Input
Amino acid sequence: MKAEGNVQSIRSELESIARWAGAKAFGVANLTALKKADPNLLARVGADFPRAAVMGLRLQKAALDGIRDRPTPLYFHHYRQLNYQLDTLALRIADHIQDEGFRALAVPASQVIGKEPMRGAVSHRAMGWAAGLGHRGRNNLLVHPEFGSRMRYVTVLTDAPLRADKPVRAGCGSCRACVAACPAKAIKMKTENFDLAACYAALTEFTKIPFIGQHVCGVCVKACAGRRRMISAE
Ligand code: SF4
Ligand code: SF4
Output
């Protein structure tokens, strides 16, 4: 195990591993602070951790291009490939932390363990927000300052006392791109009014599209192109 004074070097090593694997975002969340607001934050994990390393990979513009008002089989495949890459990266990050003598748990990028609402073991969106990677947008997704919602994230929980980042204090401003784009009219001007039931109903319909079969959409992901929207939006 590293001496306390050297623990912070682990953080830079983890970021190097993530960047080398193509991560466009890396941050650390202080879960002690987050759990004060949500005591059930880690209830589905079955163990307690004070920190989370959160990594994000960018979705490719070309894979989103064919999306209009529903997902395409090409996007669905790309979505799954990114989840696979994120899971692989999370395992490497967790392995490195364990080598340094700390506990680490790689949370799957897209494992559903509950429905209505759909949920995984932890909310990568909430973890990413606490790790300073973006704000929660009108589309109920994390909005990265550069890449918008065209990102996917994964979380590694740990007891390594890594230096934590601070949440971003930002909002959607005058942007309404996703509000008009949503086929379910689920996106409202206020994030807290997001209609989860309408969104879930649309995603359930999309499972009937040939070669999709799962709850994915991609419409509001495509609409939220971040600062690069001038060159990446259609
Ligand atoms: S995922 Fe699709 S249905 Fe749900 S809010 Fe986004 S655009 Fe609307
Ligand atoms: S598209 Fe605009 S309004 Fe919608 S989440 Fe992104 S920044 Fe916010």
